[in-house]
Amino acid sequence: MAAPSSARLEVLGVRHHGPGSARAVGRALDELRPDLVVIEGVPELDQTLPFAASPELRPPVAGLVYAVDRPRNAIFYPLAVFSPEWVAMRWALAAGVDVCFADLPAIHELAPPDETDSDTAEPTDQAGPTTPATPPDPIGLLAEAAGYDDPERWWEDAIEHRSESGLEQFRLVSEAMSATREQDTRPDSDPDVLWNARREAAMRRRVRAAIKAGKERIAFVCGAFHAPMLQLDSFPAAAADNRLLAKLPRTKVAATWAPWTAGRLAVESGYGAGVTSPGWYQHLFLHWDSGDEDVASSWLVRVARELREQGIDASTASVVESARLATTLATLRGRPSVGLSELNDAAEAVLCSGSPVPLRLVHDNLVVGNDLGTVPDGAPMVPLAADLARQQRSTRLKPSAVAKTVDLDLRRDAGRARSVLLHRLRLLQIDWGTEIDARGTGTFRESWELEWRPELAVQVVEASLHGTTVAAAADSRVREIARESDDLTRITALVSDAMVADLPEALDAVVAALEAGTARQHDAGVLLGTIGPLARTRRYGNVRGVDVRRLDAVLHTIVTRASIALPGASHGLDDDAAAALRSLVELAAEGIALLDVDALNRPWRAALHSVARGAALHGSLAGRVNRMLLDAQEIDLAEATLRLSRQLSVGAHAAESAAWLDGFLAGDAALLIYDRNLLAIIDGWISTIRQSTFDDLLPLVHRTFSRFEATDRQQMGELIARLGEPGSDRAGTTYELEQALPAIHHAAELLGLEVTR
User: Fold this and answer.
1) What's the pTM?
2) What phi-psi label fits residue 334: left (phi over 0), alpha (psi between -120 and 50 degrees) or beta?
3) What would the pLDDT profile of 330-360 be if each residue is shown by its tens digit?
4) Three-class SS state of 333
5) Which InterPro entries match (predicted)?
6) Alpha helix stretches (DSSP H) within 429-550
7) 68: which residues sit within 8 A by CB, 6+ positions away?
8) First to last CA, the chain
C-alpha cells in the first residue's frame, strides 16, 4: 500500500496482561503523542468506549460480544488495571485522542461455520502426513535462545521487570517475534494460520482506513505475536487482504461490558491468555504507577498481614529480614528486580519458618486476588440483566467473586424475597447460588452459597430469550419445560420448583401437565416416585403462602393408580428390581403418612394388603410391606408374629427368609426390644440354619442388624442371652414401682391427673 509519507505507525507488541508491558505502553504513548490509538479487539467493541471513561467502570472487567440469536456463542475480552489495552484505552480517553478497536469483526467470528474456508484457502502442493504441524511457541524459542528453561521467567526478566523507555523496546520485540514466526512450517491452509491471517488482514484494513481519514501518528497496541505483520512498510497489497476477508459468514451481534474476576485472569482457571499471579501483577503495576519502585517491602507487609489473619505470628522485624533476603536472592539469581519467586522463598524461610503450608493459606487472597469489577449502570445490557441488577440491589444481595454463605429466614419478607430470586435464577440456569444444607420445603430456613462468575453474564443473556424480567423469564421457562417434557418425574419436581419460585400461574400450567401425564402413565414405579415429592409440596405449601390445594385431585389420582398397579408390579422381581421397588414404596408411604388423609390411606393400605397376601413375592418387598401394615395398625402384633414365624420356618428357603427378615426389620429396633416372641423366633431360625448355608447368609443377616444403633444391638444381645430364663417371655424388664412413684406423681401433676394405687 502506498501510504502518505507523513503517516507513522508504531506497533506496540505486548503481553495481554503484563504490568511491565502496561507501564511501557503508557510511556510509549507519552513519547509518541499519537492522534489515534488502535487496540487489538473486535471493532464491535467501539460502541462500548463511551462508558470506558466512567469512574464506575472498574477493572477487572471484560468486553463481551455475543451473537444475538445464540447468546452462548460469545467472546470475552478481559481487562485488568495492569492490562496494556486498558492503559492505552484510558490514556486516549484522558488525552482526548481518538481510540478504536481492530480485529476480525465479531459478525464473522461468531457466525456459524460454513464452507468458506475451503473456498478461500489457497491450495498447497505439500505432501506428507495429514497430522497438522505443531505451532511454534514464540516465547519458548526466545527463552531458549537466551539460555532460560522457563519461558515465563524469561519474559518477566526481559520485558515485565525492565524500566527502560518504550518505543525501542517494542521495536526489538517485533523483530524477535518476526524471527520466531519464520520458524512456523505450517501451510497457509492450516486453520490456525488462516484464522490469524484473516485477523491481521482486518487489522491492516482498519489502519488503512485511518490513514485515509488523515491520521498521521497511529499507535497500535496488540499481542506481540501480531506485531511483525502490522509494520507499515511490510503491508501486503490491499487486494490480498480483501480476498482473505471476502465472503465470510455473518451474524448479528451485540456488545457490552461485563464484570470480571481476578481469579478468571489466572491461567489455572483455563483462560488461555491468563497469567499465573494476577494479584502480584496488580501490586507491581499500582506501585510502579505511583512511583514506588520498592515493591518487595510492601508485598511482604501484605503477606504478614494475611498470615496474622490466619492466626500465624509475623513480626515487623521478620518482614524487614524477608525483604533483605528477597533482594539478595534476586541479585544472586541475576534478575533485574525482585520477583514473586524470590518473595515466596524469602517469606517461606523467614515468616513461615521454612514451611510452605502457611503461604498456601494466603495464595488465593494475595497471589491470585479476589477482586470483582464493576460496570456503569448505563452500560448496554439486556432488559433481564437490568431487572436482575435492580433485584440484587433491592434484596441486598451484592455479587461477589468470593464464595459466601447466606442464611435465609423464610418467615421474613426479606428472606422470602431473596429465596424467590435465587430459585428463579436456578430455573433459568443462572448458577449464581447453590442451595446447601437443604432441610426440605417444610422448614423456615434456607442456606445458599453465592459466588458470581464472569460466565454468568452470558447465562443472563441466554435467559433473556425467555423474558425481559426475572419473574417473566422464569415463568416462561417453567411453562416450556412442562409443555415439552413427557417425564412425569421431571414434571413432579417442577411443581416444587414453581412453588418455591413463587410462580403461581406457571404452577397451574405444571399441574395441568401433571394431570395429563398421569392419565397416560401406567408404570407403577414412575407413579410411586411422584407421590413423595407431591405430598411434601402439598403439606408444606403454606410455609411460603402458596395455595396448592389443586394438587389434592392430582395426588388422589396418582395414589389410586399407583395402588392399583402395585400388586401386579410386585411379582417376578430379581434382587435389584425388588430393592428399587421397595425404595419407591417406602418413599410413597412416607408421603402418604405425611398427609394422613383417609382418601389416600384407603387405596394405599388396600394395595399393601394385596401385596402382602400375594404369592411368589421377593422376600425383601414382602417383609417390608408386612412391617408397614403392622406400623399402620392394619394387622396386630400377633398376626405379624405368625407371618414372621411362617417365613422363618424350617421348610422355607434360607436366602428368601433372610430377605423377608431384612424387609420386616427395616426401621427402628423397638419392635424386637419390646417383643420377646419376635426375638425368640429370629433366634430360633438362626439356630436351625445348616453350617453350609449359614456362611452364605451371614453377610445378609449382618447387613440387616448393622442398620440399628450400637446401643440397640447391645440391648438385643443381652435379651437374647436371657431367652429361656424364668420370666424372660415378659416384654421389657421388671420395673421397681416404688422407685418410679415420685416420677409418676410429678408427671401426673403436670398433666392434671391423679395417681391411685
Assistant:
1) 0.68
2) left
3) 889 888 888 888 999 999 999 888 888 888 8
4) coil
5) DUF5682 (IPR043737)
6) 456-463, 470-484, 488-500, 504-520, 524-540
7) 251, 252, 253, 254
8) 118
Mean pLDDT of 121-133: 42
Identify the three-state secondary structure at position 456.
helix
Give the C-alpha separation, 206 to 228, whole Å: 16
CA dihedral 644, 645, 648, 649 (to 10 degrees): -150
Q: Does an H or E element contain 580, and which?
A: helix 575-595
Q: Kindly list the distances between the CA atom of residue 509 and the CA atoms of 330, 497, 726, in Å, as whole numbers in the listed order.
A: 69, 13, 67
Q: Looking at 60-74, 124-138, 435-449, which range is the least confident one?
A: 124-138
* Residues 267, 551: Cα–Cα separation, whole Å: 51
Beta bridge partners of 253: 67
Task: Give the Cα-Cα-Cα angle 350, 354, 359 (nearest 5 degrees).
Answer: 80
- Give the model confidence (pLDDT) of 1-20 as tens digits: 444 457 899 999 988 888 88
From residue 120, give the alpha-carbon distance in Å to each of 109, 115, 123, 278.
Answer: 16, 9, 9, 40
How far is the C-alpha of 480 from the C-alpha of 485, rounded, in Å?
Answer: 8
For 83-117, write each residue's pLDDT tens digit.
Answer: 999 999 999 999 999 999 999 999 999 998 764 44
Amino acid (1-letter code) at residue 32: L
Give pLDDT, residue 164: 59
DSSP string, 70-88: EEEEEEEEEE-TT-HHHHH
538 CB neighbour count, 10 Å cutoff: 22
* Tens digit of each residue's pLDDT (9 = 90 or more) over 538-559: 776 655 555 667 777 888 888 8
Between strands 217-223 and 36-40, the pairing is: parallel
What are the two backbone dihedrals, phi and then psi, of residue 99, each rounded to the nearest 5 degrees? -140, 145
Question: Of 135, 334, 103, nearest to 221 (Cα)?
Answer: 103
Q: Which residue has the higher pLDDT, 99 or 737?
A: 99
The pLDDT tens digits for 219-244 are: 999 998 899 999 988 899 999 999 99
Measured distance CA(567)–CA(644) in Å, rounded: 20
Cell of residue 605, nine digits? 393400605
Place of cell 484464522: 195
- Residue 513 corresponds to which amino acid? A
Higher-confidence residue of 472 and 548: namely 472
- In the structure grid, which three cell numbers stand for residue 691, read together? 453350617
Closest CA to 622 of 681, 573, 667, 671: 573
CA distance 697 to 653: 11
Cell numbers found for residue 192: 490456525
Secondary structure of residue 10 in the 3-state scheme:
strand
Q: 409 pairs with which residues across the strands? A: 445
Q: How many other C-beta atoms lie within 10 A of the C-beta of residue 136?
A: 15
Residue with more model confidence, 733 or 574: 574
Helix (H, G, I), strand (E, B) or coil at 55: coil
Q: Residue 131 pLDDT more than 50?
A: no
The residues, any chain, with a CB within 8 Å of residue 27's CB and separated by 6 or more, are 165, 166
The predicted pLDDT at position 525 comes to 85
